[in-house]
């Protein structure tokens, strides 16, 4: 018979953590275990799973304990997010079989490796959500550029402004691409394949594959914007050179005429 539902919360707090320093701190000050590049923090009847890429999953952890842990995690955060991404589920133990239904996770036991298998999918999902938001925000802030080019035939921005926008677009694209392997199947399941079915079920429920495809298309859009801005910068540079040449020729003609008149 299933136990009463408990709370499962996953958050993305930062781009990533200074994980070696964070591990040293938590291993010295908490009931923590480093397991396959993931930190498991035991709160007696609750568990927190901390991932190097700035995500943490809480199983039945009280609000006070979460806040205290988050303040410690943020001390080791690299580029903490201004707005944390979060995802809420409920879960129940002693189920007849492992399954996920209507945002409730039913597990056969509180085996930490079972919780870890689901945590991997949950953490990847929340990291993907942060990537999705980052890509969409960048697209939204540059959406006027194609419209301007289509209506006016040019982008009315200075070379410096264009360079800044290109830099922001590139940072978004490179940040996601560098961390894209986080969305692959974690190494944990190479040594513990018996838990991969549960991870796959959670990944399918969270639609990781479909959302990754959509994110890829957004990155392609960003790449196209980069190419467009690069072409516009080249065009502006060429136009500037053309006017410089025209003015030099005009000056040379004027000097020649003055010499003949004198």
Automatic annotation (TrEMBL):
<dbReference type="Pfam" id="PF02582">
    <property type="entry name" value="DUF155"/>
</dbReference>
<protein>
    <submittedName>
        <fullName>RMD1 family protein</fullName>
    </submittedName>
</protein>
<dbReference type="InterPro" id="IPR051624">
    <property type="entry name" value="RMD1/Sad1-interacting"/>
</dbReference>
<feature type="domain" description="DUF155">
    <location>
        <begin position="49"/>
        <end position="215"/>
    </location>
</feature>
<dbReference type="InterPro" id="IPR003734">
    <property type="entry name" value="DUF155"/>
</dbReference>
């Amino acid at each position: 018979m299933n136990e009463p539902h408990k709370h499962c919360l996953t958050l993305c707090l930062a781009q990533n953590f200074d994980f070696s320093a964070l591990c040293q701190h938590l291993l010295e000050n908490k009931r923590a275990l480093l397991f396959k590049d993931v930190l498991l923090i035991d709160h007696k009847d609750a568990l927190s799973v901390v991932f190097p890429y700035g995500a943490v999953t809480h199983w039945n952890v009280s609000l006070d304990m979460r806040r205290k842990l988050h303040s410690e995690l943020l001390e080791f955060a690299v580029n903490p997010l201004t707005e944390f991404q979060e995802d809420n589920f409920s879960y129940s133990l002693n189920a007849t079989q492992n399954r996920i239904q209507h945002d409730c996770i039913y597990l056969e036991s509180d085996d930490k490796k079972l919780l870890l298998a689901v945590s991997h999918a949950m953490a990847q999902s929340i990291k993907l959500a942060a990537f999705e938001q980052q890509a969409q925000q960048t697209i939204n802030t540059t959406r006027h550029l194609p419209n301007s080019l289509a209506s006016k035939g040019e982008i009315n921005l200075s070379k410096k402004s264009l360079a800044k926008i290109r830099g922001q677009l590139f940072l978004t694209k490179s940040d996601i691409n560098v961390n894209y392997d986080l969305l692959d199947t974690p190494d944990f399941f190479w040594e513990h394949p018996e838990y991969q079915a549960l991870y796959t079920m959670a990944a399918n429920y969270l639609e990781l594959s479909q959302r990754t495809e959509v994110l890829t298309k957004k990155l392609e859009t960003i790449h196209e914007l980069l190419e467009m801005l690069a072409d516009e910068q080249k065009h502006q540079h060429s136009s500037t050179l053309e006017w410089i040449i025209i003015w030099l020729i005009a000056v040379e003609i004027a000097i020649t005429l003055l010499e003949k008149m004198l």
